[in-house]
Protein: Tetratricopeptide repeat-like domain-containing protein
Amino acid sequence: MKQSPQIVTISVVGMVLAALGLYFGSLLPLLKAQSFIEASKQVEFVRSVDEFKDNFDQMFNLYSPVGDEEVTKFLGSSIMGILSQGQPEPVARELVAYIEPHLYKNDVRHLLLLSQMYEFLWGNYKQDADYQKAVIYLETAREIGPNLPPPLYKLLNLYASRGDQANFDRIGREIYSRWPEDKNVAPFFQ
Structure:
């Protein structure tokens, strides 16, 4: 039976679109994820920050329309774990500087992770610039999700750690106005 040219054209276009969908929607994200897993396995053999960067640059250089946000967040969490193992200050700063441009500045989870890294640096190395960056990332997360508790509570804790009473009061009152039943905050702002 002979097919009409329109049906053949539509079939060919459909097959090409399906193949492209598989390639961009499944194969590239799979390759990206496998690249992250392989790079993560190699971390224990890495002996310098440059080796660490080279190891993960391969993953970052692999294009995928899906999956960048996830692998970047996972790597950021891994770096936070490495920082908490007591790295020397230059190593800690270089690791944060490496991941920072890769983390999404419009994603609350990424911003919270960045603020956590800078709060860690500030807590350990006492540089005011680290504290300021932690505040900036938390305030940005708060702007994106004004009703989300994590940015507010993290700001409250950061201001308390710093002894910044004015900002502690400002954020505490905001938390209390939203969640007056919070037993941890209510005694301070009733």
